[in-house]
Design goal:
13 strands; Rossmann fold
Length: about 450
């Protein structure tokens, strides 16, 4: 079997390399495709060829005839959706034609790449970024096997699925009845939860693939008409400036916060403003601002004034997203940045999230959880899901009025951790995790 690994970041090639070696030991061949400079650098660091051999300059005109595209208009809109919304939020306007041209370029590349190397299976990370989206859609149109990777919702875990990830994965659709039938090994679960509460240490992989600041500056300032021009804002001079500021701000300016937590409060953890979970998997939440507005209004209607509201900003947005206007609009909210999130979860009376992994962590502590976005864990008896804006108030009341179904939650979490997720993360691995990861991929590939 010939397997293609599609890389979008600098850590993926290191993970895929473990699987490549396992596949190659069993007589298979592996190939790597990447357009992101960090990813290409990492692929070369593990001594593997990277396709395409060279990134093209200038425009994408005439790279693909739209009439010969395998995608219909609806599919093309889906392919472009995440990047369009993300770039719009980064201040880039009138980019749809550019994205369409790039989608056609990716389509031509992957069609040719798969055919040239007789690819039979494709492994990708995430689901929605446009290059990944084109890669797996073309693979399915050519009847190739697909495997999706994503960070798991529990610490140091990975999702590996042949259907998709998060709400698009194979867990979505499992009902309350499905999890009620799960048998929990109480000793394994007890040991895991005890370990989960402690800081875990994994050997960190030495990463030679991270692109240096000099390389980024050279790329942004001297090759302004190259492949990523206007398409990857973090590689423009302005984007690099924001990245440098963020690193300096989080390391030298932002300090651990101290706060006397109120006796009763609702905890609202914010998600990264450009997260696919926010932009794609949230039907009526189109921004962090709308999330705060809708939940704030619902809390004020549903609960007495003794319940305070604590909002914690996402670490990825520290130093790059300013919620100053939002804070002025809601001065009675307690806003936190660098604060121990487990302390907030353990002391909160209720956790409200769009569809964050923080909701899963809150379930670990048997806290009532309200979700307002699409998620694989929107299951009756486990969380209180508000499918429409008008449902949020009732969901909050129900969450606090009804007792938490700890038995069902533990069954769900047990299945999630020990039957679905595998041990590991983009930065940390041990021998057990590598073994689980390779075994899962081989199973999904039918090996």
């Amino acid at each position: 079997m010939n397997v293609a690994f599609v890389c979008t970041g600098e850590f993926e090639p290191w993970i895929y390399d473990f699987i490549s070696r396992e596949l190659e030991a069993n007589g298979h061949r592996t190939y790597y495709a990447a357009f992101n400079l960090n990813a290409r650098s990492a692929v070369k660091s593990i001594n593997r060829p990277c396709y395409p051999d060279k990134l093209i300059r200038a425009s994408y005109k005439n790279r693909q005839d739209p009439e010969s595209s395998l995608f219909n208009r609806g599919e093309l809109d889906e392919i472009m959706k995440y990047d369009y919304l993300r770039l719009q939020k980064n201040g880039s306007n009138q980019i749809k034609n550019r994205l369409k041209a790039r989608a056609f370029y990716y389509e031509k590349f992957f069609r040719d790449f798969y055919r040239k190397h007789n690819i039979e299976a494709v492994v990708v990370w995430n689901y929605f970024p446009m290059m990944v989206h084109v890669a797996w859609r073309i693979a399915r149109k050519m009847d190739l096997k697909t495997v999706f990777f994503e960070n798991g919702p529990l610490r140091h875990t990975l999702m590996i699925d042949n259907k998709g990830v998060n709400h698009q994965g194979s867990l979505t659709g499992n009902t309350r009845g499905f999890y009620q039938q799960i048998t929990v090994d109480t000793q394994i679960w007890k040991d895991y939860f005890t370990l989960y509460k402690k800081p875990l240490e994994f050997p960190e992989m030495k990463n030679k693939g991270i692109m240096s600041l000099f390389e980024k500056l050279y790329y942004a300032l001297l090759m302004r008409n190259c492949f990523y021009r206007k398409m990857q804002p973090d590689l423009t001079a302005d984007g690099i400036g924001r990245s440098i500021y963020k690193k300096l701000y989080t390391k030298y300016v932002l300090k651990e916060e101290s706060c006397a937590l109120p006796e009763k409060f609702v905890f609202i953890p914010l998600q990264c403003f450009s997260d696919t979970q926010v932009l794609i998997n949230s039907p009526y939440i189109n921004s962090i601002e709308s999330f705060v507005r809708i939940t704030y209004q619902a809390i004020k209607k549903a609960l007495p004034d003794e319940y305070k509201i604590i909002v914690k900003e996402h670490p990825d947005d520290w130093g790059r997203i300013n919620y100053h206007e939002l804070k002025k609009q809601y001065p009675d909210i307690i806003w936190l940045k660098k604060y121990n999130i487990r302390s907030l979860i353990k002391q909160a009376d209720l956790v409200i999230t769009i569809n964050s992994s923080v909701g899963i962590e809150a379930l670990m502590y048997h806290k009532p959880v309200v979700t307002v976005g699409n998620s694989f864990y929107n299951i009756e008896g486990i969380v209180h899901h508000a499918a429409m804006p008008g449902d949020v108030e009732a969901a909050i009341k129900n969450a606090l009025d009804k007792s938490v179904n700890t038995e069902l939650i533990d069954k769900f979490l047990y299945y999630l951790r020990f039957k679905y997720l595998v041990k590991g993360s983009p930065r940390y691995f041990d021998e057990e995790g590598v073994g689980q990861m390779c075994k899962r991929v081989m199973e999904l590939l039918g090996e």
